[in-house]
Amino acid sequence: MSSKLNKASAFAVAAMMTTILVSANGSGAAAESLDPVAIPQEPIPEIQLQVPQVASVESDAADSLAELVATQPYPQELSSELNCLAGAIYFESKGETLAGQLAVGRVVVARSKSGRFPGSYCGVVFQPSQFSFVRGNALPYVRKQSAEWKEAVAIAQIANEGTWRSPVEGALFFHATYVSPGWRLKRLARVDNHIFYR
After folding, report:
1. For the segment 57-78, what is each residue's pLDDT rounded down to a tens digit?
2. What domain count does the chain have?
3. CATH code for the domain of 33
């Protein structure tokens, strides 16, 4: 009986790992040239993040990220780079907290400056197999008058200018919490629905 139980347990673990590896492909920002490795996973505790009250000189007047978002101008036209950055924030994290949206935006900014990824926001966003929302080298349709888009544009401006520090500064990778790709990277934190790594 225990032999059958051991075989059934081994089959269940193998099926779960296959599901995880298949579903991790194309979710969030995938790690560059890293093969999935099965490693024991400990439960990742939910971190209650306090958005740091650290702002650059340009935003010393803002007491909170929400206040800084509210003071951002809404440009009539966005540059293609800010449009790509806002699109990544919108499609990857709309509906999350401002801290979660900023964390996603800062990853795109960090990647563009890292030398390991394309040197532009659009290059980062459209790099093959990095963001699951990209279809045919284009962003899906966006309702530009929606509150979510306007918020994504404000967060993109803040991420671009570096006027508010993200709780995961320096992160280059993230994935959705519902997948576990087993990356051998330094885990920084969980913010809303994503786990961030350096």
Report:
1. 344 456 899 999 999 999 989 9
2. 1
3. 1.10.10.2520
